[in-house]
Amino acid sequence: MPPKRRTSKRRIDPAAEAEAWRAVWLFGFDFFGEAAALTGLPEPVNVWPPAARPAAASAWDAASEAAWQRAGHLIEIEQEA
């Protein structure tokens, strides 16, 4: 019998998550692939065939929004200064 799949219990530091998503939130592009590596999702511009990009874009936007809810306040504080 195969082993039971378990959900990951890995927790990400909010500051590290904000730093990984920082370029995406400020410039709209993941220059160094940090957010893609963190989430395991490909950035929508890197998805082939082009017909699959809308689904990838919606997953990417959902991950970005969820990260913004968790760690976006760390970037906002820095912008105000």
Structure characteristics:
flat, 3 helices, mainly alpha, 81 residues
Report on this structure.
With 81 residues, this protein is mostly helical. It has three helices and no strands. The protein has one domain. It has helices at residues 14-27, 34-39, 53-80. Helix 1 (14-27) packs across helix 3 (53-80). The radius of gyration is 15 Å and the shape is flat. The mean pLDDT is 89.
Q: What class, by secondary structure content? A: mainly alpha
* Low-pLDDT sequence parts: none
Considering DSSP H and I runs of 4 or more, what fraction of the residues is helical?
55-70%
> In total, how many domains does the architecture comprise?
1
Rough outline: flat
The radius of gyration is: 15 Å
Estimate the strand proportion: under 5%
Q: Give the integer mean of the pLDDT values.
A: 89
Please outline the major beta sheet: none
H-E string: HHH
Q: What is the rounded distance between the termini?
A: 57 Å
Count of DSSP-assigned helices: 3
Number of distinct beta strands: 0
What does the secondary structure layout of this molecule look like, with pairings?
Blueprint: H1 14-27, H2 34-39, H3 53-80
